[in-house]
């Protein structure tokens, strides 16, 4: 059986130990989670033209984590000191990927930055920095409560899960049509869905790839994406 082809937009990296040049990369844990699920992970080069035609050959999309979106993308007039790794081409490409995947019904799983990209693509905004230690969501595994019956809850197989987080931003105003389907104890939106979407779609603010190799609940998100891409 041919593995469904899952597009994963590459991330720019200034260095890579095995190469002599800057690189375009994806996290190995993310790629391995797609492979375990039965998918064929394929990194795709960020470019500012032809996104719809390029995605047409794929069966699903995984929009991964990465640096921050430029605050101007969601109408902010200033930039917080903690905003990092902004790249104009990366922003343009990721936003195009999110819009085209949702418009075409292509199965889409968005992770961390990916969730934020989807929210901004649909007209939402972000809180540029969540604040001090009491609101810290970096290097943290914490419980998340999932909405019963939601796609994320069905994928995880539970209504609570332990989520591995690494983010300093979060959703402020929701994008058009989006619905929060998971929250942390402090109220942070941890998952988003789009009721009535043409294709399978869920977005999580955490990094399921961090623990997917040992936690079937987190691997379940990648399994659900690949199942949707197989139909």
TrEMBL record:
<dbReference type="GO" id="GO:0006598">
    <property type="term" value="P:polyamine catabolic process"/>
</dbReference>
<dbReference type="InterPro" id="IPR029062">
    <property type="entry name" value="Class_I_gatase-like"/>
</dbReference>
<dbReference type="InterPro" id="IPR044668">
    <property type="entry name" value="PuuD-like"/>
</dbReference>
<dbReference type="InterPro" id="IPR011697">
    <property type="entry name" value="Peptidase_C26"/>
</dbReference>
<dbReference type="Pfam" id="PF07722">
    <property type="entry name" value="Peptidase_C26"/>
</dbReference>
<dbReference type="GO" id="GO:0005829">
    <property type="term" value="C:cytosol"/>
</dbReference>
<dbReference type="GO" id="GO:0033969">
    <property type="term" value="F:gamma-glutamyl-gamma-aminobutyrate hydrolase activity"/>
</dbReference>
<protein>
    <submittedName>
        <fullName>Peptidase C26</fullName>
    </submittedName>
</protein>
């Amino acid at each position: 059986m041919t593995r469904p082809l899952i597009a994963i937009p590459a991330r720019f990296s200034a260095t890579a130990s095995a190469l002599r040049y800057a690189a375009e990369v994806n996290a190995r844990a993310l790629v391995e989670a797609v492979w375990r699920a039965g998918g064929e992970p394929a990194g795709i080069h960020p470019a500012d033209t032809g996104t719809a035609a390029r995605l047409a050959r794929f069966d699903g999309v995984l929009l991964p984590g990465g640096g921050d979106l430029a605050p101007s993308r969601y109408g902010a007039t200033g930039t917080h000191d903690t905003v990092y790794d902004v790249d104009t081409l990366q922003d343009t490409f990721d936003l195009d990927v999110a819009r085209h995947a949702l418009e075409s019904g292509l199965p889409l799983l968005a992770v961390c930055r990916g969730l934020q990209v989807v929210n901004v693509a649909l007209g939402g905004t972000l809180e540029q920095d969540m604040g001090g230690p009491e609101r810290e969501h970096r290097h943290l595994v914490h419980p998340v409560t999932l909405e019963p019956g939601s796609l994320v809850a069905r994928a995880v197989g539970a209504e609570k899960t332990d989520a591995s987080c690494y983010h300093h931003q979060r959703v402020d105003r929701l994008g058009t049509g989006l619905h929060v389907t998971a929250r942390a104890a402090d109220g942070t939106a941890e998952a988003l869905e789009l009721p009535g979407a043409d294709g399978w779609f869920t977005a999580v603010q955490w990094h399921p790839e961090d623990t997917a190799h040992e936690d079937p609940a987190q691997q379940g998100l990648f399994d659900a994406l690949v199942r949707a891409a197989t139909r």
